[in-house]
Specification:
Radius of gyration: 22 Å
Helix content: 25-40%
Number of helices: 15
Pathway: Porphyrin-containing compound metabolism; protoporphyrin-IX biosynthesis; 5-aminolevulinate from L-glutamyl-tRNA(Glu): step 2/2
GO biological process, one term: porphyrin-containing compound biosynthetic process
GO molecular function, one term: pyridoxal phosphate binding
Enzyme class: isomerase
Number of strands: 14
Strand order of the largest sheet: 4-10-9-8-7-5-6
Order of helices and strands: HHEEEHHHEHEEHEHEHEEHHHEEHHEEH
Bound molecules: pyridoxal-5'-phosphate
Keywords: Aminotransferase, Cytoplasm, Isomerase, Porphyrin biosynthesis, Pyridoxal phosphate, Transferase
Length: about 450
Amino acid sequence: SEANQRYLNRTKNSEVRHKAAQQFMPGGVTRFTTFHRPYPVTIIRAEGPELHDADGNRYLDFINNYGSLIHGHAHPTIVRLVQRAVESASAVSASIPEQMELAQLLCKRVASVEQIRFCNSGTEATMFAIRAARAFTGKSGFIKMEGGYHGLHDAVEFSISPPLVTGERKNTLEPIPTSSGISHNLARDIYIAPFNDTHAIENILLEKAQEIAAIIVEPVMGVAGIIPPLPGYLAELRRLADKYGVLLIFDEVQTLRLHPGGAQGLYHVEADLTAMAKIIGGGFPVGAFGGRADIMSVFDPNQPGHVSHGGTFSGNNITMTAGIASMQLLDKEAIDRLEALSSRLEKGLSHVIQKYNIPAAITRVGSMLNVHFTKLPPIDYTTAHATSKELGTLVHLELMNYGIFASPRGTWYLSTAMADSHIDETISGFSEVMQKISR
Ligand code: PLP
């Protein structure tokens, strides 16, 4: 298409680099996420809200490394502190004061988190949260949502983007491995429910509560397309977990940005265990899992039969230092400012969508939003899946050509490095793209 040709023309150096990379990395990439056809751009430099690619193109970054760069790229305070940390020590296999400082900071922010431990990714965070739930309850099953994303470990790689179940939906959806290489045998432990459907959860629990350790849920679905919980949904999950004797795990890997206390603070519902990552590392590899002290005590090495957890780089000084700074910078005022920027963006994009009569709907919670090419805002995987992939791909490509770096899925994450002027520039770009498409 014409959009594709323009992309090819302006990214020649990225193409050359991608060709060379294909010899040494399968598909020429080491991660799938920002990949789009025919090849991803190679980014040479990034600062604040801007990316610069190998051909000298500038982009406003609305992916922000999938929501982890809440203060944009190379925030001066974070850079300064990290430089100092690099000079003072490399990673050590001992305690460092920064671990205690970040642990305390996160426990103070998220009311339900009494104790916490660090790891290196959100994937590990949900893996250890589920392991803790199993150890604490002595049960192995868990409920996850259809379309729910909790990282890449085998146990949770089920029903992330399954084929649509149409017609009469069953109470229990069959768990479908998301990738080859995942053992079907693991499906025995997994129960799938649609997001925002508490009846489905209760039906599973009525039958299987004796086998189920936990419900794991993103309070706002992220990868599925920024889908907010319906009013009362999370509180009802809390009630059902208590009624049936299972633990409630909130995967707040994305949602911690929404409120000083995370989605739990925003919606006033407390989890038993919480998985965190992304923004708590200030841009560096990170994960953390925490919760009730009686549950977290399963990791206490002084206890007989304690649960194993470690990791060569868990709690390393660079990540801890950047994480402390990132969270200190993200005070109530910063979150309010993000809300104002994000609301301005939503209004602008909505106006454009109406003006050009595009079949699209926006979902937004705080500084995360998603443009869906559906008539109605989705409430679960099935309704989100109705988005037009063709339109989504075209819009993504045209936005890239305009200099707006948003995800192929239509998800946008804002950063505190943005100002009103960046938002207005983006709305203008979106308007030009939509005008082109509506012709
Ligand atoms: N959980 C959620 C809700 C996520 O969005 C992600 C990543 O996008 C993860 C877990 C996995 O985190 P990581 O990529 O750090 O392993």
